[in-house]
Amino acid sequence: MSFDPVSRLDGKVAVITGGLGAIGYATATRLAALGATCVLLHRKGDDAAARAAALPSANGQRHAAIRADIVDTPSLVAAAAEVKATLGRCDILVNSAGHTKPVPAADLDALTDELIDDIVRSNFRGVFATIRAFAPMLKASGDGLVANISSIAGFTGVGSNLAYVAAKAGLDVVGDALAKALAPAVRVVSVSPGAVESGFVPGRGAEFASKMASTTPLGRIGQPDDVAATVEALATTMRFVTGTRIVVDGGRHL
């Protein structure tokens, strides 16, 4: 395969989990504008088909939305089969689904066994299961890209809760292992934001965003498009990159 930069993604198929979320949809918008056909995987969303249809269609591509839950492996297998049957390929997989709940690191009792299992299941196991389901098509592409939306929590140890920290750290390390296992046909990269302006973490509003911005070297928190732009770069210009972490946090981790 060639690692030369490209400017367009015409003919490529991109599958985005959490496709209706802020980061997922921003990423789909960028990839679609470059000619990729995008498939939004979502757990629930009555407007999913309409939002898929609203994505840019620079060369007449018809985007799609498929209901699938990353913690339900049969639904992922079914989604991959549908993509294969209808589009014939998957070249880019963006894993942006997951969820969390704020729990102070010192409050050990609040981080129950059930919550740990839930967080790890959705933020680690579900991502791995998604990669597993789409790996055959990614390998068949010969020019596959897996972009795992991770977090600086995975290497700073500071995040919404310690189970989330562990899940993202595990995702980063396993992503590196998969980059070796799936090379050279598929590249695997972790994209690690800091605080992003979205509703991902419940209960964090304008006051939290202002506090985070004031202690971030570049003076603001991230936007979903900051993360989406990084995935776009990995698909187009940063094509000799695999098995590593791209930090997109305005210096928040420093």
UniProtKB/TrEMBL annotation:
GO terms for molecular function: oxidoreductase activity. It comes from the Bacteria. Keywords: Oxidoreductase. InterPro entries: KR_dom, NAD(P)-bd_dom_sf, Sc_DH/Rdtase_CS, SDR_fam. Pfam families: adh_short_C2. Residues 12-199 form the Ketoreductase domain. This is SDR family oxidoreductase. It comes from Variovorax gossypii.
